[in-house]
Structure formats: structure tokens, C-alpha cells
Recover the amino acids of this structure.
């Protein structure tokens, strides 16, 4: 089964936060949709009372299903059927801790069923071959796919578990298997040496060493400022609906996220080095600080998936200006207005008509809509807000160019929780090796190699081992790095600076 549906069948490609569906985020679009609806349902419910009882019930049960899916979560049984002692212990503690014994599949059964599902390739046929023949109950088969039978289904007919089973099997089928041939540091060096079309996907983590806050993180100072406006989540500042209603909130905090430095990090320099060595296919960045450009990444190799401050546009008429034109307003926390629809309005002789219009309420004021324009449109930096579509370049480059060329994927400094960027790697051919460089591991994607640590430190060490000259003032000349294989993992390494 090709997990590419999410990108190809969903033409809107608007930016969505998929954080709450961590373990589900690599799913087919149908499940994403359901869960995203669930998320909006939660939001709606907290704002106003519910309008439709029936929908409510659906959401309610989807939410319960999602909880059940998360129950046994995301344990990754060894691909290829080898069972390690670690797998066995984890499986036992999982099944015991949720009270599944003796109704649960054993580890061996679970692995066999997962392999069978992958071999068959479609959910319906797999379920037909198993539950359909009476070989196993749907309830028990759920446990093979990491699903804890939820309490609300206790005592129900076995058919009641069908949907849950479907979700669990779909999740398994859409998850890419780790490529077992890449495990050692030397494997990583080889990949970097021989790959010539590398996709690098980056996020906030590559700029934090420069003091640029990750505005998605709740630990930043933005959080308390935002609470003053009655918003509960810093991300709401980047919600297009909130911006349209109250642009002042964005303008008030904008100075804190406005790029304040031309400096770039060692990780930016690493991506530039890949470009210099003719190895960079495309850098997809979710950052809006435009530092890739400062680091010298060429425009034809860079996709700023969430836009940048390089330009700003009027939300009303689309008039576009260089970003610097509104920097003064952004720094002052003052809502910038469009110079274009402002002047049009004056051209229409607003001074003489405005007063007239106000006095003559009724009949004729309806036809002259331009009189209803209360003021010029608000200027918005060309960064992508939640609920807005991504730049078209993003989709075109990925589907029409990169997909056929890519030979290595390196994900750096992002937990890949914002769609559709989070779906990029699932869209690429599954036999293309994938590396992950970040402080903390992610569970919803099987990378082939995980390098955990400060990304500046990791890339510096990789270059040292490759004899690639990565020069940057923030990399100490005599830096020594300790690289350790993490216990219980075949391809997960931690990088620490030796003090
Ligand atoms: Zn305008």
C-alpha cells in the first residue's frame, strides 16, 4: 500500500497542527481527517455549546477509538521478524500493564499477523483472511496491532471491534519499515559520501542555537504574553482566523519572532556544504527566519514551506511589498495598513462620500460597496498561518521533481508534527534511506538512523568523520564528541560534547 494518499488526494494542503495525533500522524488521510475533525471538535466544544448531537456522538466515539489506538501506542516490533529480548520484555509489560493477559496475542503472534498484513497489503483482505474465517476474534487481533480494547466496547459483539481493527491495520500498513541494512555510523558516512540528491527537511531546532525561539514551544516567553489576550496556545497567534479578526495580537508579538540576526548556525552551514558538494537536492524548511538564504542556500534549492518575512501582502487586495517595508510597524507593534487600497479609497473621494454614506443609512448604500470598506487592508507577512495553504512551489517541487531523484533524506531539528510537511517523507519512495538528527527521538516515523543531540554538534561530528571542512565560528576547533549507541537500539546514537 502506498502511503501517498494524504498528499495526492488532498488538494488543499493547508497547514495543520497534527500534534495531538502523534501516533497516528503517519496515517492515511481518512484517519487524519477524522482525527483532525476530532481536534476541531474539541476546540469548538470549549468555545461554544454543541450544535449537533449526532456529530457529537461520532466525534465522541472517534475520540475513544483514538485513545485506544494510543493505548498500546507505538511500540515498534523488530522489522524482519527477529525478536530481541527487549521486544519480548516490552510486549509483556505492555500487555500486562493494560490487563490484556490472557486475551492478547503473544509477541510471536503479533509479529506474524503484522507480517501477514504487510504481505497481503490490503486491510479488507487481511481482515477477511483472519477474522473472516473465524481464525481469531477482531478483539484479539486488535492487540496484535498495538490496540488496547477500550472499556466502552467491553461486552460488545466482536463486530464492534471492526473499525478499531481497521484503524490499527491501516496504521501498520502506512508505516514505513526501517531499512535494516543501515545501522552503523560507518553506514551513515557511506550514505553521505555516495548520495548526490539529498533532501534536507529542517525545523526550528536548527535556529535555536542562535537564540531564535521555537514559537511552537510552550516554554518560550511568547506564551505568557499570549495568555493576556485570552489565547491558550501560542500557535493561535498563527491562526489565520484569529489574525483576520484581531491582527493586533500578531503585531504585538511579531517583534519577538522577527528575524533579528543575519547569523546562521553550523547546521545551516552544513546544508550549504552539501550544496557546495553538489549533494543537495532540496532543503524544505519550516522556518520563517530566512537564514537559509543568509547561509547561501540557492533559491532553486530552497522551499520555505511556511513562507518567510521576505515579503508581505495585503489581506484585502493582495498588494505585495518587500518585507522590510513593514518591519518598522512590526517592531513597534503597530498594525501595518495597505498603501494600495488606502490610496484607491482616497481616489474614490472618500472624504466627500464617507460622511454622506454614514448619514444616509438605507437603500442606496447597499449598491456602493466600496463605501463599506472601513479602512485599508491589513498587511500580513508572507508566512503561512495555520489554516492557510502552503506555497504551490512546495507541492510541485516535491511531486514533479524531487520524488524521482531523491537518494537520501535527512530530517534535522523538527519533530515533524505540522502537516503537510510531516507527510513529505511518507510520500517519498520507502526504499530511500532516512536519517534523523534532533535532540529527542520521534515515535511516529521509523527512521533508518537516529542521531540524537544538538544538531550543530551532530553535523560537526559527521563532517569531522567525513573529513569535510565545516567551518563555523560556533564550532570550537578542538571540539571532542562522544558518540554512543543507545541501549537496546541498533541504529540510534547519542552525541555529547566532551567537556
Ligand atoms: Zn490592499
Amino acid at each position: 500500500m502506498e502511503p501517498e494518499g494524504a498528499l495526492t488526494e488532498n488538494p488543499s494542503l493547508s497547514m495543520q497542527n497534527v500534534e495531538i495525533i502523534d501516533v497516528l500522524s503517519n496515517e492515511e488521510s481518512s484517519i487524519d481527517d477524522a482525527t483532525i475533525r476530532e481536534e476541531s471538535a474539541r476546540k469548538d466544544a470549549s468555545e461554544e455549546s454543541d450544535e449537533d448531537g449526532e456529530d457529537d456522538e461520532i466525534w465522541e466515539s472517534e475520540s475513544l477509538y483514538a485513545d485506544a489506538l494510543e493505548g498500546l501506542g507505538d511500540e515498534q516490533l523488530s522489522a524482519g521478524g527477529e525478536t530481541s529480548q527487549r521486544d519480548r520484555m516490552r510486549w509483556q509489560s505492555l500487555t500486562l500493564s493494560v490487563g490484556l493477559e490472557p486475551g492478547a496475542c503473544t509477541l510471536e503472534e503479533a509479529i506474524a499477523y503484522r507480517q501477514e498484513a504487510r504481505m497481503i497489503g490490503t486491510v479488507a483482505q487481511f481482515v477477511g483472511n483472519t477474522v473472516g474465517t473465524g481464525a481469531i476474534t477482531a478483539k484479539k487481533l486488535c492487540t496484535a496491532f498495538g490496540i488496547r480494547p477500550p472499556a466502552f466496547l467491553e461486552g460488545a459483539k466482536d463486530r464492534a471491534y471492526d473499525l478499531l481493527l481497521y484503524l490499527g491495520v491501516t496504521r501498520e500498513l502506512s508505516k514505513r519499515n526501517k531499512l535494516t541494512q543501515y545501522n552503523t555510523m560507518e553506514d551513515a558516512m557511506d550514505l553521505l559520501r555516495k548520495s548526490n540528491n539529498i533532501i534536507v527537511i529542517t525545523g526550528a531546532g536548527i535556529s535555536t542555537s542562535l537564540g531564535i525561539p521555537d514559537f511552537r514551544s510552550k516554554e518560550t516567553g511568547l506564551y505568557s504574553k499570549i495568555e493576556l489576550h485570552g489565547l491558550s496556545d501560542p500557535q493561535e497567534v498563527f491562526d489565520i482566523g484569529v489574525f483576520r479578526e484581531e491582527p493586533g495580537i500578531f503585531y504585538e508579538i511579531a517583534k519577538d519572532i522577527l528575524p533579528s540576526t543575519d547569523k546562521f548556525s553550523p547546521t545551516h552551514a552544513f546544508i550549504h556544504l552539501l550544496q557546495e558538494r553538489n549533494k543537495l537536492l532540496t532543503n524544505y524548511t519550516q522556518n520563517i527566519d530566512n537564514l537559509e538564504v543568509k547561509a547561501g542556500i540557492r533559491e532553486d534549492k530552497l522551499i520555505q514551506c511556511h513562507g518567510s518575512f521576505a515579503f508581505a501582502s495585503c489581506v484585502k487586495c493582495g498588494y505585495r511589498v518587500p518585507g522590510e517595508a513593514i518591519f518598522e510597524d512590526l517592531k513597534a507593534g503597530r498594525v501595518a495598513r495597505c498603501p494600495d487600497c488606502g490610496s484607491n479609497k482616497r481616489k474614490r473621494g472618500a472624504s466627500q462620500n464617507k460622511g454622506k454614506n454614514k448619514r444616509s443609512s438605507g437603500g442606496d448604500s447597499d449598491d456602493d460597496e466600496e463605501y463599506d470598506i472601513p479602512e485599508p487592508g491589513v498587511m500580513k507577512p508572507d508566512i503561512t498561518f495555520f489554516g492557510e495553504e502552503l506555497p504551490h512551489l512546495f507541492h510541485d517541487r516535491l511531486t514533479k521533481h524531487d520524488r524521482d531523484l531523491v537518494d537520501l533524506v535527512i530530517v534535522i531539528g523538527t519533530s515533524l508534527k505540522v502537516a503537510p510537511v510531516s507527510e513529505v517523507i511518507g510520500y517519498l519512495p520507502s526504499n530511500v534511506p532516512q536519517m534523523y538528527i534532533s535532540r529527542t527521538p520521534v515515535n511516529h516515523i521509523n527512521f533508518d538512523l537516529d542521531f540524537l543531540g544538538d544538531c550543530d554538534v551532530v553535523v560537526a561530528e559527521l563532517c569531522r568523520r567525513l573529513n569535510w571542512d565545516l567551518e563555523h565560528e560556533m564550532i570550537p576547533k578542538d571540539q571532542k564528541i562522544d558518540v554512543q549507541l543507545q541501549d537496546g537500539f541498533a541504529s540510534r546514537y547519542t552525541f555529547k560534547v566532551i567537556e
